[in-house]
């Protein structure tokens, strides 16, 4: 990707990616001021992240959070595609909303130029009722939770005891999602039944660490195992989505070795995640889908 400045540093910059051109206005506007990331920097970083982020967003309805003046100012959620919508942007109708479908570098860069700093995607794919993954959202009640990776490890140990392979990914905020690719077959309701079993078992075995209490006011300092969030129509941040937090953190798949080393969600951010991916690749893409049918058949209904 190349950029050509016109007139001055504060003037719009024409960004080229092959035959695609995008006019980036206010290129010097600070977006993550603590990290020295301005708007043009962000668009360039998205171009580098695109091969890794897009596979987790394509084919799903997109909800974004836009910060027109950077992370420390007003923000708003956006489900409907911004108007005017360029011809290169694919959209899909669902529930009376015309969603962006983030399936191209061009669409990603355009959204970035509109200050979309977070990319949350639906658990269900467009036109496909049966999920291809199971997820468990590990949501700390504390902003800084020193037991987070201990909690992640306990979930991983339980899944491993069931003969299942999954990987954690940081949310980019305070939590972690456990992601397990599955063979299509089970419905979202059946996956919820499995998630309920996993969560209630862990909460019963570790009552001073975990809770399945929905109401935040009733959780105290316990870590919430949210098995309900992975469901048709509900969203979670896509892998490799940036997050609008002071450290420019990125939702990043991590290894179980890194869990044991007690890494922090803030360790992975826009200024280092691309180099990490070039060196290590995406561990989540290497996981093969597995069948949950044998286990689901043994769970009480």
From TrEMBL:
Single GO term (MF): DNA ligase (ATP) activity
Annotated Pfam families: LigD_Prim-Pol (PF21686)
CDD domains: LigD_Pol_like (cd04861)
Enzyme class: ligase
EC number from the UniProt entry: 6.5.1.1
InterPro entries: LigD_pol_dom, NHEJ_LigD
PANTHER family: BIFUNCTIONAL NON-HOMOLOGOUS END JOINING PROTEIN LIGD (PTHR42705)
Organismal lineage: Bacteria, Bacillati, Bacillota, Bacilli, Bacillales
Swiss-Prot/TrEMBL keywords: Ligase
The UniProt record lists the keyword Nucleotide-binding: no
Name of the featured protein: Non-homologous end-joining DNA ligase
Domain DNA ligase D polymerase as annotated: residue spans: 39-283
